[in-house]
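User: My instructor asked us to take a sequence, write out its structure as tokens, and then describe one feature of it. I'm not sure where to start. Here is the sequence I was given:
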Amino acid sequence: MQRNRLLLIAAAVGGAAVLAVVLILVASGGSSSHEAAPTTTAAAAQADTTPAAGSGDVFAGVPQKGDTLGKASAPATLTVFEDPQCPYCRQWSVDTLPTVVRDFVRTGKVRLVYRGIEIIGPNSEPALRAIFAAGAQNKLWNVASALYDVQGEENSGWITDDVIKNAAHAAGADGSAILAASPSKKVTAALVAAGKDAVAAQVQGTPTFVLQRAPAVPQQLPVTSLDPQTFSTTLSAALQ
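Assistant: Let's start with the prediction itself. The structure tokens for your sequence are:
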């Protein structure tokens, strides 16, 4: 999986810059068939900004609380660092996340924890705020997935209130409540905490996956491809 762009984690939230860390993404090896990230043109995004109904079905019946997906008793936790504007994050969400939920989360082997961070640009912040706000309805993962369904070009301004409302509706969440909660101190604190966690985990790009199995210390999952089979093989090996 190749990621070789200069990105910025900028948690300039609540009107004050609380965190600014420059991260350089170093190209890593991987099959060329998996290097190209899926893209959505601005024209396509404008043509259809409504996620397909039922886009959150992959999560049906899976315990979800706040930013956590899966059983609290799961022996391993996989923390996922994402930016809703990141095309590689969309690839992970659309192509690979359903397999991870089916084979690892539903079976009680792993629980997922969401950590949204702003690296692409300022248009990421309203989406991140909406996603974290959806956690109050236990729909965080659904809303994040629904936003990836309609991802537009980076920093094109595609993340609007209407897009967020449509994503919330597709996810079975209350969009008005999400928008009302987005500027709250609680959501701001979640953004700041995610940024600090990214620094502590030495995140150098998105998506990044950090696996923890108590009592061992958290370790980044050595992902070389977002292909579902390759990712599952890597995760399975790390769980041994």
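For the description part of your assignment, you could build on this observation: Residues 1-50, 52-56 have pLDDT under 50 and may be disordered. Try explaining in your own words what that tells you about the chain.
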